[in-house]
Design goal:
Arc Repressor Mutant, subunit A; 2 strands; 122 residues
Length: 122
């Protein structure tokens, strides 16, 4: 928070002096003499951006599972991918649990994934 305040104070003082500020302007120097720029202070770690995007995408996918799929498709996708914190199951395990063939589980899974993909991309 202190850094943010320092940046805001600097911007305010610079605003009186000039109408433009570059993100590459040096605002300080570290112990080794390397310049510290605005972009260094406000830049965001790529993994953080990826994590946020993944969470948003995951949330959309879960919502689609709840709204787009039939109850049977939803159950198979939930079991197959361990949604809701459960351990993911193989197609064979799902087939034994639901008393249907593994190939039928595979067809339902493929159809459900196609529906989810279409909803997420469209």
């Amino acid at each position: 928070m202190r850094i943010a305040n320092e940046i805001l104070m600097h911007f305010r003082s610079q605003k009186k002096q000039a109408s433009e500020i570059s993100l590459n302007d040096t605002i300080d120097v570290d112990r080794d003499g390397n310049p510290l720029t605005y972009i260094d202070v406000i830049s965001c770690d790529d993994s953080l951006v990826s994590d946020v995007e993944r969470k948003i995408s995951s949330g959309r996918a879960i919502k689609c599972v709840d709204t787009v799929l039939s109850p049977r498709e939803k159950r198979i996708i939930t079991l197959r991918y361990g949604l809701g914190g459960a351990k993911p199951m193989t197609q064979r395990e799902i087939a034994e649990t639901l008393k249907i063939s593994r190939s039928y589980v595979s067809r339902i899974e493929k159809s459900a994934l196609d529906k989810l993909r279409a909803e997420m991309n469209g």
